[in-house]
Amino acid sequence: MPNPYLPVPAKILAIQPQTPVDYTFKLATDIEPAWGQFVEISLPGYGEAPISISDAGAGYIELTIRRVGQVTTALHRLNPGDTVYLRGPYGTGFPLAEFAGHQLVIAAGGTGVAPVKGLINYYANHPGELEGLHLLLGFKTPADILFRADIERWQTIFPTILTVDQGPGGWPGRVGLVTEFVREIPLKPHARIIVVGPPLMIEFTVAEFIKHQVNPEQIWVSLERRMHCGLGKCGHCKINDFYVCLEGPVFNYSQARNLVD
Amino acid sequence: MGYKLTPAGFGALLDELATNYQIFGPVRYAGKGRLAGTDLTTYGPVRSVSDLVWDARTTFAPKEVFFPVKESLLYFSGQEITEPSLEMKETLVFLRACDLNAVSRLDKIFLANGPEPDSYYARRRQHIHFVLMECQEGFPGCFCVSMGTNMATGHQAALRLENDHYLLQALAEPWIALGERYGQPARVEPVWVEKNPLTVRVPERVDIALFQHELWREYACRCIACGRCTLSCPTCSCFSVQDVIYRDNPERGERRRVWASCQIDGFTDMAGGHQVRADRGDRIRFKVLHKIYDFRRRFGINMCVGCGRCEEVCPEYISFARCVNTLNQLMEVQGRDA
Ligand SMILES: Cc1cc2nc3c(=O)[nH]c(=O)nc-3n(C[C@H](O)[C@H](O)[C@H](O)COP(=O)(O)OP(=O)(O)OC[C@H]3O[C@@H](n4cnc5c(N)ncnc54)[C@H](O)[C@@H]3O)c2cc1C
Ligand code: SF4
Ligand code: SF4
Ligand code: FES
C-alpha cells in the first residue's frame, strides 16, 4: 500500500527574497497543481508545513514562504541546490470553469496573494478566457509588497488597484484597506469574485462585495487552518462536516459562510 | 457454533491461542487508578483467563492497539528517509459491542476519508481480530441502545461469562476448532443489552444558530481543557505530526504522530497568532457536534457509540449525554416554534 506520508525530494532551483521575511522557492518537481492547491513541504528533523503553490510551470513549482517558526526558519536558511521534501498537491483549487467567460475580480491581501499569483499569471497568458480581470491587491506597507515584478506586469495588462494600509511619505500609490476600493470596480451583474487574505480581511471584503449586490454564490474564498496531514486524517482542519484540506482550501462563499469554527 | 467452557478449558484455549496471537483485552492494574488506592481498568495484554475484567468499564479504549498513542512515521538519517518496518503478530482483541462499533468509526477516518487510506493504520488493522465480550447490562452512564451500538458485527467469536462457565459463539476459525477441542457443544444465541437506564436523544439536525446558544457558555467556565474526554473516547482519531532529532545523534531523527485533542490549547493555532475556538465552550460544542452530527453528515452514522467514558473521566463532571439531550430539546422547541 502506498504511504501517503512519504515525501519525495525536490531540489531548490532558485530562491528569491520578496521581503526580508518572505522568500519564493522554485523547486524542481513534476507536480502539476490546480491553481489554489497546496503542498506539504518538509525538512527532516524540523517538520512539515502546508504551503500554497504560488506558481508552477513545466518541471517546477514555486512556494512563497514567510518565516514564522521552526520549519519556515529552517527553510529560509537553505540555498539553491539544497533538497527539500514534498508531498501533494492537496485540496481543491479554484474552479476555472466557473470563471470562464465572466468578469473576474481577485481581491487579495498580504500573503493571500501567494495562492492566486499562479492563477493571475495563467490569465495573463490566456487573455481570451475571461471577460476582464480586475485586481485589488493590498499590503500593510510598501515594504511588505510581494511579487513586485509580477505586479508591474499585471498593471500593464489588467485594471489593477495596488494599495497599502499605511503609506509613508513618498509612496505614490493608494493608501487604505482593500475594502475601501471595492466600490471603484465596475462590477458586471455576473462577476465572479475571489477573496484571499487574513481572516478579517476576507470577512470585511466579502461583506463589501455583498453590499454591492454580489451574491454569495459568485464569491470564492481560500481558507487557512492548522493542518497536520493534508489527507483528511489528523482532524486539525475540520470545520463542521468539512475538512479544509480536502474540500478546501478554496470554498464557494455560499458554503464558507456556513462554516462556523 | 456454540460451546460451553469451564474456566480451566477456556484458560487452555487461551494458552493455545497465545502461541500464534498476541491477545489484548480489559485488564486491571492494581493501585494505578487516578485516585489513590484505586485500580486502573484498561486494555492491556491478557495472559490468563482471570486477567479479563468483566465487571467494569475500561478507562481507555482498545484503539491504542492499532492506533498507538505515539507512532513513528519516518526515520531520518542525514538526508535519507526510511519507513519503519512493521512486523506485527496476528492480534486478538477482546472488547465490548460499543468498542467494536467504534472501530468502524475509526476505519471511516483512516481508511475512507480523503484521497487514500492511512497506510500505517491499514497495515496494523489487517492483523487485528475481534472477540466480543457480551454485556449482561451496561455500566452507569452507558447509552449504547440510544446510539444503536448495543449490537455489533465483525467479530470472530462472542464470549459470555455465565455463573461458573463461559459460553462461546464461534463464528469463524480458529474458534470453531478451539471450541471443539476445549468445550462442550451448546446452544448459544447472542444476547445484547436492550435497555440502558440512560436514554440519549440525538437531534436529527442541529441548526448553526444554536452555535451561539448560552448552553455552551456554561462549559466555557467549567471545562479545564485537559483532553481526558478525547483520550478515553474510542472514536477520537485526531493526531499531530512532529519531527524530533535524537539527542545522542543529531544526524538522526524521526517524524512521528501523537494523539491530539480538539479540547486542548494549541489544536488550531496558526502563524500570526490566529486561533479558532479559543473559548472552551466552543471546543465542547465542536466535539459534541462531531460525535453526533458532523460525522453522520459525512459518513451516514453517528461517531459516538455511547460508551459513557468521556463523562466518567471528566474531572469537572461534564456530561456528554446531558448536553446532547439539551441540544435535542432546543431543536424540538425550535421545530415547534417554526
Ligand atoms: C492551506 C494553507 C496554505 C498556506 N500557505 C502558505 C503560504 O503560501 N506561505 C506561507 O508563508 N505560509 C502559508 N501557510 C501557513 C504555514 O503553513 C505556516 O506558517 C507554517 O506551517 C508555520 O510552520 P513553522 O514550523 O515555521 O511554524 P511553527 O514553529 O510551528 O509555529 C509558528 C507559528 O505557526 C503556526 N503553525 C504551525 N503549524 C502550522 C500549520 N500546520 N498550519 C498553520 N499554522 C501553523 C504555529 O501555531 C505558530 O503560531 C499556509 C497554511 C495553510 C493551512
Ligand atoms: S463521545 Fe463519549 S460516550 Fe460517545 S463514544 Fe466518545 S467517550 Fe464514548
Ligand atoms: S474531560 Fe472534561 S474538563 Fe477535560 S477537556 Fe473533556 S470536558 Fe473538558
Ligand atoms: S490537515 Fe489533517 S485532516 Fe485536514
From TrEMBL, chain A:
Q: Which cofactor does it need?
A: [2Fe-2S] cluster
Co-factor binding details:
Binds 1 [2Fe-2S] cluster per subunit.
- Which example biological process does GO assign this protein? pyrimidine nucleotide biosynthetic process
- Domain FAD-binding FR-type: where? 5-96
Instruction: Please provide the record's keywords in A-Z order.
Output: 2Fe-2S, Iron, Iron-sulfur, Metal-binding
| Pfam families named in the record | DHODB_Fe-S_bind (PF10418), FAD_binding_6 (PF00970), NAD_binding_1 (PF00175)
Q: Where does [2Fe-2S] cluster bind?
A: 229, 234, 237, 245
This protein's source sits in the domain of life called: Bacteria
Q: Name one GO molecular function term.
A: 2 iron, 2 sulfur cluster binding
Q: Which Gene3D superfamilies match?
A: Nucleotide-binding domain of ferredoxin-NADP reductase (FNR) module (3.40.50.80), Translation factors (2.40.30.10)
Q: Which NCBIfam families match?
A: sulfite_red_B
Stored PANTHER family: ANAEROBIC SULFITE REDUCTASE SUBUNIT B (PTHR43513:SF1), DIHYDROOROTATE DEHYDROGENASE B (NAD(+)), ELECTRON TRANSFER SUBUNIT (PTHR43513)
Q: What is this protein called?
A: Anaerobic sulfite reductase subunit B
Taxonomically, what lineage is the organism?
Bacteria, Bacillati, Bacillota, Clostridia, Neomoorellales
Automatic annotation (TrEMBL), chain B:
Zinc among keywords: no
NCBIfam families attached to this UniProt entry: sulfite_red_A
- What's the name of the protein? Anaerobic sulfite reductase subunit A
Q: Which UniProt keywords apply?
A: Iron, Iron-sulfur, Metal-binding
Q: Which residues form the 4Fe-4S ferredoxin-type domain?
A: 213-244, 295-323
Please give the Gene Ontology molecular function terms for this protein.
Answer: iron-sulfur cluster binding; metal ion binding
SUPFAM superfamilies assigned to the protein according to its UniProt record, in alphabetical order: alpha-helical ferredoxin
Report the gene name.
asrA_1
